[in-house]
Amino acid sequence: MVDLNNLEEYISLVVDATIKTGITRQLEAFRAGFNQVFDVSSLQIFSPSELDYLLCGRREMWVADTLVEHIKFDHGYTSKSPVVINLLEIMGEFNPEQQRAFCQFVTGATRLPPVTNPLLITKLNTASNAVGGVSESADDDLPSVMTCANYLNLPPYSTKVNKLFISSYHKEMVF
């Protein structure tokens, strides 16, 4: 039974169980697996902030001018493709909450990936441009993503898309 007399001890035990001794086996398994690929002791040359950036990307939100540094284009799109230019314009107008939601949708993280593992925007083969497709236009299709690879598969929209429907935390966000 927790009361005011033992509350501090209870909190201490919960913290210990959840972020210290309670996860020791999982941390050791992670370390062993990581060491099979890359010697974890080599990471000591990096500061915590450098490691954070290398593994998780830039912490600050983007400005329109820096977007292209974190994005590559392939499979039918270039930086000069009209649909890409339109998307970058839209992304450049996002507020911080929209930026985090967009990144969460595309990459699974709330920030842009590091430049060493950029977001890849590719042309989505949609039902409208497939043989026997159902929709009249690519404008009817939604983008898809592969969060494990930082891929955004974007349909070849005919006009500037001003609404991206992104499901984030079980709510629909409209940009």
TrEMBL record:
Keyword annotations: Transferase, Ubl conjugation pathway
InterPro entries: HECT_dom, Hect_E3_ubiquitin_ligase, HECTD1/TRIP12-like
A GO biological process held by the record: proteasome-mediated ubiquitin-dependent protein catabolic process
Coiled-coil boundaries: none
Active site residues of this protein: 148
Domain HECT: residue ranges: 1-160
Superkingdom to which the source organism belongs: Eukaryota
Single GO MF descriptor: ubiquitin protein ligase activity
Record-linked SUPFAM superfamilies: Hect, E3 ligase catalytic domain
Name of the protein in question: HECT domain-containing protein
Species for this entry: Lactuca saligna (Willowleaf lettuce)
Lineage of origin: Eukaryota, Viridiplantae, Streptophyta, Embryophyta, Tracheophyta
